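Structure in, sequence out. Go:
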């Protein structure tokens, strides 16, 4: 007869996400995970697989938590361009906020730490970026259809530029205590939407 789990896998995954997000993949040991999750090593392996598989599941969870917020911001009815501007400004504000500054963005952290040499992590990062780009592109297409965005602007190219800017904001914000640099970059980039 199979034993029932004596822990909440959802809560354990959330704890793993938070630990990996704060410390990164390499700096997090299995002993750290055992302590943070409050479960044994065998239970971690049985439920989530090895450390790498757990990391990828935590990264997937992060995306599941972030995407609905972005979707609700960019897909709301009415004018689309103010929503796009608000999202970019939110990314800028979060990049300089003390509570976001040190851990940064989990996807961006993965892109810089693991993606260059880890194909599975790189695919996960690309999926996340594709989702953001798609949401931005859809909002910009809607803005153009509603007459908010000039006809000579390419919504796909703008979406890609904003994605790269937003991810760059996260990197610079994590390493720099200079909010003016980020604010100026955000406002300059948003002039391309005029």
């Amino acid at each position: 007869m199979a034993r029932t789990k004596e822990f909440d896998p959802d809560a354990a995954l959330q704890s793993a996400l938070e630990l990996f997000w704060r410390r990164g993949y390499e700096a997090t040991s299995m002993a750290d995970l055992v302590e943070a999750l409050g479960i044994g090593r065998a239970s971690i392996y049985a439920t989530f697989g090895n450390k790498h598989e757990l990391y990828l599941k935590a990264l997937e969870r992060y995306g599941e938590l972030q995407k609905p917020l972005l979707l609700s911001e960019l897909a709301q009815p009415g004018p689309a361009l103010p929503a796009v501007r608000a999202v970019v400004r939110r990314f800028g504000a979060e990049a300089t906020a003390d509570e976001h500054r040190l851990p940064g963005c989990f996807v961006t952290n993965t892109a810089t730490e693991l993606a260059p040499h880890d194909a599975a992590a790189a695919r996960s990062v690309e999926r996340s970026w594709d989702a953001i780009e798609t949401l931005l592109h859809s909002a910009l297409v809607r803005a153009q259809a509603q007459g908010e965005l000039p006809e000579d602007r390419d919504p796909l190219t703008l979406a890609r530029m904003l994605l790269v800017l937003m991810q760059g904001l996260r990197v610079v914000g994590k390493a720099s205590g200079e909010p003016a640099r980020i604010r100026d970059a955000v406002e300059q980039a948003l002039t391309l939407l005029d």
